[in-house]
Amino acid sequence: xxxxxxxxxxxxxxxxxxxxxxxxxxxxxxxxxxxxxxxxxxxxxxxxxxxxxxxxxxxxxxxxxxxxxxxxxxxxxxxxxxxxxxxxxxxxxxxxx
Length: 97
What we know:
By secondary structure, this protein is α/β, with parallel strands linked by helices. It has a single domain (3-91), classed as Nucleotidyltransferase, domain 5 (2-Layer Sandwich), CATH 3.30.420. The chain is 31% helix and 33% strand. The chain has a 5-stranded mixed beta sheet with strand order 3-2-1-4-5. The longest helix is centred in the last third of the chain and has 10 residues, at 73-82. The radius of gyration is 13 Å and the shape is globular. It holds the Pfam family DDE_Tnp_ISL3. It comes from Mycolicibacterium aromaticivorans JS19b1 = JCM 16368.
């Protein structure tokens, strides 16, 4: 990952994509301001998102103000533990569904 992408990272989005059926997923972390993908982790579990968080220095995590995620315990739990100060915005697709 290009570390320069993380220097101004403060609004991120987390989503997963199925790349092969049945049940092969990737967790994608993107920068809402630039539209750039900043990280991809295998799977769609709590561990997938935790791996991204663990790879970030405390200063990068402290800069994150807003996180958009799916409505899931895994995403919510990891996000509130890693960036408790951040505002969580749930994906409206899952809310309206």
